[in-house]
Write a structure and sequence with these properties.
The chain is mainly α. It has one domain. It has a two-stranded antiparallel ribbon. Helix 1 packs antiparallel against helix 2 and helix 1 runs parallel beside helix 3.
Length: 72
């Protein structure tokens, strides 16, 4: 993922505003603190966007984005 793609995702979440919690991404992933979730996912991506260890972070952010878009 490029820095530009990360910035676009971050901009989407900024524009979407704070979401009501809990948010269930799947059976094993429940977001109870929206701001902390975003911060804890974007920080590692900004530090090392190409690391393969960050792929689950990207996947969860994209799942959340789809969920927000489908509920809009």
């Amino acid at each position: 993922m490029t820095i530009q793609e990360i910035q676009q995702l971050e901009e989407f979440f900024t524009q979407a505003g704070k979401q009501q919690v809990p948010i269930y991404l799947n059976q094993a992933t429940v977001i109870t603190d929206y701001e902390h979730f975003l911060e804890s996912h974007f920080m590692p991506l900004k530090l090392n966007p190409d690391a393969k260890v960050n792929l689950p972070l990207i996947h969860r952010l994209k799942m959340l984005k789809l969920l927000i878009e489908s509920n809009a």
